[in-house]
Amino acid sequence: MNQENNNKQKEDCPLCETARETTDMLSVNKDVEIKNKKSFRKIKTIFWCLVIILVVVGGYKILSKSPLMSPVTEDVSIQGKSINISEKASSQINTLAPDFVSEDVYGNKFALSYFQGEKPVLLIFWATWCGYCAKELPDLKIFTKRYQDLIQVIAVTSGETRQTIKEYLQEKDINFLILLDEQRKIWNQYLVRGTPSHFLIDKEQKIITMRPGLASMANLEIMLSMISIE
What we know:
By secondary structure, the chain is α/β, with parallel strands linked by helices. Helix content is 48%, strand content 18%. The protein folds into two domains: 2-64; 73-228, Glutaredoxin.
């Protein structure tokens, strides 16, 4: 009997009903608040992703306008191989290579004409900071050692100081000739627009071909074969 009275009192209690409604409203508000926080976090994540994308795209557009990062290129076929050629530099193919005089890190003077009539030359425009140069370095060292009697490998630096080159030469145990070009005069002679850039020059000092960008051992040997068949 007392239990029935208590139940009836609870049912007739307006304060109890209000308390239940308040509790339900608080529960609903808490769920809404949690959903709002989750939505805010998603919006914040999307916002920062868009910012990062804009920064990356903007940076790429700026770099792509740099003459060292955006060479005008065309594809040509050499002995059945497709090779990417800088449009301006490729105009020098089958012409006499511009002669130059420069020094190595020890002050020894060299000229391109020193090798005329003696050896073909693989002339590479190169830099210590160049990622592709570093990537092709192991193959280039093997190529130099393997074919040193057939071709002279010369790397011309990218406006870097003598000390920088000397330290890099010793650190990487470079086995090919590196010449300085602090004012980029030789670069301008050869219309170079990026690193690495490879020029194959025969004994008569004529430019046979050129290849901008990364060169693998296979690429280097293909270039060498163009000399050996003449």
